[in-house]
Amino acid sequence: ISNNNFGADLIEIGEPQKALSFLRKSASLDPLFSEAFYNLGIAEYKATNSQTGIGFFKKAILLTPSKIDSFFNLANCFARSKKHSQAIKFYRLCLTIDPNYYKAQAQCIVQKAKVCDWSGWDDVEHLRFLSKIDSDSVAPFEMLSFEDNPIRHRTRSEEYVNSKILTQLPI
């Protein structure tokens, strides 16, 4: 445990590469100590070795499947490795553990955007803040880069014109 704690301290002060030897020793002394594998994953990720981190986070999940941070950081490793569908899968798994884990929701949206998957966008009302939409009206072209549905974009733009512009015209 002391090797693990020292390794975790090294990660915190920005020395993930130095932490690896202590964390590997901790994991080899107790191969059922999930925290050592979790910290190895963090150290590898911070040392920009996402591929290696993936294996350590998977091992940590096998040992402690209820630890949401292992799923989240595994998803982060997949995201950094540009394995967007795998990242989405593990961000969603975070949300099965805690549906209010907003970091996972936000990262899932980012990954879905990278593969142009807009499914579920309209189903999640509280995500309006991400797209800066405060009503059903959107200024024309404001959301065009996020919009995959031209009919929806036209409807929102028309609503904007009707509510913001036409109401100001003297009739």
Q: What does this protein structure show overall?
A:
- The radius of gyration is 22 Å and the shape is elongated.
- The protein starts with a helix and ends in a 6-residue tail after the last helix.
- Mean pLDDT is 81; it is low at 128-138.
- It is mainly alpha-helical.
- Helix 1 packs antiparallel against helix 2 (16-29).
- It contains 8 helices and no strands.
Work out the strand percent: under 5%
The average pLDDT value, as a whole number, equals: 81
| Alpha carbon gap, first and last residue | 77 Å
For the largest beta-sheet, the strand count, sense and barrel status come to:
none
Helix content: 55-70%
Helix/strand class: mainly alpha
If helices are DSSP runs of H or I spanning 4 or more residues, what is the number of helices? 8
Shape: elongated
Work out the number of β strands.
Answer: 0
Give the SSE string: HHHHHHHH
Which regions have little confidence, pLDDT < 50, spanning 5+ residues? 128-138
Please give the radius of gyration in angstroms. 22 Å
Quick structural gist:
The protein is an all-alpha fold and 171 residues long. Helices cover 63% and strands 0% of the residues.
Structural key phrases:
mainly alpha, elongated, 171 residues
Task: Annotate the secondary structure layout.
Layout: H1 2-12, H2 16-29, H3 34-46, H4 50-63, H5 68-80, H6 84-97, H7 102-114, H8 150-165
